[in-house]
Amino acid sequence: MDDQKLGDDVYALQMNPETSACKTPLQVAYFVLDNAKYWYLNFIYNFMYKCFDMDKLHFVEGDTDSAYWAVSGDEGAGIKQQFKHVIKNQQFYDENAKYFFPTVEGDLLDEKKILGLAIEREGPEIIALAPKNYYMKVNDKEKLKLKGVNQSTNKITKNQIVDNITNGTITKCTNMRVGQKNYQMSKLSTEKNGITGIHTKMVLLSDQSCCPYVFGLNATDYTVQ
């Protein structure tokens, strides 16, 4: 249910439809869930590590089927250079890039090929606290992703994210929504920590490095050099 405030006690409501159409086969959904992590790492270790200079790449954040990388390439080549200036093994790249990247410009089928990759966004700056929690500048626009926070009622800025990293400042947010129970319409308010250094999906070290959960290990078992 979506709502929009029209006055002090007047709201416009949009109800979710009772039916919906899905054109994605169930096989695709199950395949993504079952195989995403394997192919994710397969691309990194069996392709990127073999043909890219990984000293010029930094993994910023990622999710089930996406990864954001900071690339230290040619400063004068602009933000559309992708990985062109960090290739260390051109022959390996030329022989294998076609299995991952689109090879035919403007061909949607080629761009969406199974196990293939497509560029989602490119920009000169990105700061991430956790998966689905980041700031990114795309051309002249700023994109701020903050899962679980209604940004239409909470003003979140890049400075708040930076302040959390440098000073540990926690930004609290309030989500407002309208709910109905027993034919009684109510305005509900939920307060939560919108920006925080707590990261529940990985082990977070003192220098902001993220390490995977391994049974029997905690943050004190990792060494930062």
TrEMBL record:
Coiled coil: none annotated. Gene3D superfamilies: Palm domain of DNA polymerase. This is DNA-directed DNA polymerase. The lineage of its organism: Eukaryota, Metamonada, Preaxostyla, Oxymonadida, Streblomastigidae.
